[in-house]
Design a protein that fits this description.
The structure holds two protein chains of two kinds. Chain A is mainly α. Chain A is built from 15 helices and two strands. The A-B interface holds A 3, 7, 239-242, 244-252, 259-260, 263-264, 337-340, 343 and B 56, 58, 60, 93-98, 101-102, 104-106, 109-115, 120, 123-124, 127-128, 151, 154, 159, 161-162, 172, 175.
Chain lengths: 344, 322
Amino acid sequence: MLRSILKPFQVVSARVRSMNYVTRRILGMFPTLFFISIIVFVIIDLPPGDIVTSRLDRMEAQGVEASPEYVRNLRARYDLDKPLYLQYLFWIGKFVTGDLGYSFFYSKPVNELVWERLGYTLLITVAALFFTWIVALPFGIYSAVKQYSIGDYFITVVALVGLATPNFLLALLVMYFSSEYFGVSIGGLFSVEYRDEVWSLDKVMDMLFRLWIPASVVGMGGTAVTMRLLRANLLDELNKPYVVTARAKGVKPLKLILKYPLRIAINPFISTVGLLLPTLISGEAIVSVVLNLPTTGRMLLDALLAQDMYLAGSFLMLLAILTVVGMLISDLILAWSDPRIRYE
Amino acid sequence: MTDNVLEIRDLGVEFKTDTGTTNALRGVNFDVPRGKVTAIVGESGSGKSVTANCIMRLIQRPGRITSGSILFNPTSTESFDIVALPDKDSLIYELRGGLISMVFQEPMTALSPVHKVGDQVSEAILCHRNVSKAEAWEEAAEMLNHVGIEDVSRRINMYPFEFSGGMRQRVVIATALVCHPEVLICDEPTTALDVTIQAEILTLIKRLQTELNNSILFITHDIGVVAQISDYVVVMYQGRVLEIGSTHQVLKDPKHPYTQGLLAAIPGIAPPDQRLSTISDVVGDIDITTAYPLTTLSDGRKVSLPQEALRKFSIRRTSETL
């Protein structure tokens, strides 16, 4: 009697509990991002000099002498004469309202510079992530199920070579072979004829066709790691009692592996998708220089070298937000897939 | 002519490892009579579980069935040899969970932590019968109710980690019985449970056996459990069968020195204030490792003993009956 009265409340409380989890995780992002923003700002400011000194250096190289007055004005214009904490407050205050500041180096608002590149970075990163999973999943499973077979050894060797090859080297190799033997240049994200075109279906198709090269180059190392870890995780699970129970129920081999041990073995990966993002993004930075991709990598590097603090800071902050959001998404997927986490 | 649901003959299993070959079973022979409870007793490593896994064809590399046959008679008219089935034969999948099913030792780990109880129970139905998911869940709920789980409509949507050990074992039993198998193999189903729950589960298994009238192969190392539940006893040691008989025969008047040793080592039976006998105390110098063939005695039981010891027994038995 009492139980039947309480029943609707119990259902509601379960839902409230999982809502609590989501809210808690989302609120937890903000302190993280706050600390990241401080670290980003301080690190950008750490090297001696600032954007003004690097501009003066360039002027000096051209033989132009800048008056101390001019320098002071320049500093004042960019708030560089204020103490660091004030500079930070100005920057972060504008950042949260969507004003990312002004790039001294490009003489353009940062907003005009970052978004397109960030979009391409995200595109390549997500494509690399898909590549990782599409390749790592079947080969990882095969490797574990057929442990110590010839196929397993072959996959292991390929994975270790892939792991040991730096991204940029792979990018160079791919570029060399494709132009030497196939006569195609694979640099850039678009074919020459589409590069300056406006967006059209053909341009999108062209991009998707070329996308898999940077995606596979960027995703290579992660694929190798994922494959090896999946193999190890799966081997741990394959002979667990619950798998034997399912086998004794008469479940067919393929369904058995996909439904039971893989479900458990894959959990660590769901939680590390978020961790994979920063590696993919930083790996992408060097590859983008080699493959001449219109992504953040090149510009971020230049901005850091020129101490273009608003541009560099905004870039790093946006990448940090992407990563933190990525972690949030992977945590939520994990909670969805594993009831033990949801019910904690 | 007795009606046996399983007839195991000369079953041999070996495990090949880097350090050498282990012969887990060396010529196991026994029958499982239809509609009865047959217990296999023996110490760790005697081959009890391996025998069960052979019947389900669950032996995996590096293990291999090297010899023998397991004749399975689902009805008294049809029969086939389980050992002779090819590895991926569809009959094996039909067999597992459909005709023969198994209850495992560890209810805490025998269920998947990320699938709902209802999913895991109904899966057994979906593997063997062509019914809709909703129908399978309904039948699963019925079976869960049958094994003594209350408030099924709520509990069926819960996960195993929200259940206690005893409840989980009930779920495992429901999963095993939901397809109404001919044979239920219980591989030490109560070892991981505390004593009160153990008694409950045993009563449940016994009750379901009388209701469903199936045959049970009950593996245990607990003689007390044997006395409580089984009709027949098979004593195993080092991958062989040493003695077979009715529970009464074997427990009251064991013929094989090893069985005598096993019984003497039970704390409750041994005289108080005395060191418990070990098996080797009782067995002494008698050779129990050599494989002697099983010989049927006049009262129907079988023992594996050398000729001279056997002659002594037979003579005594014949003189008694005369």
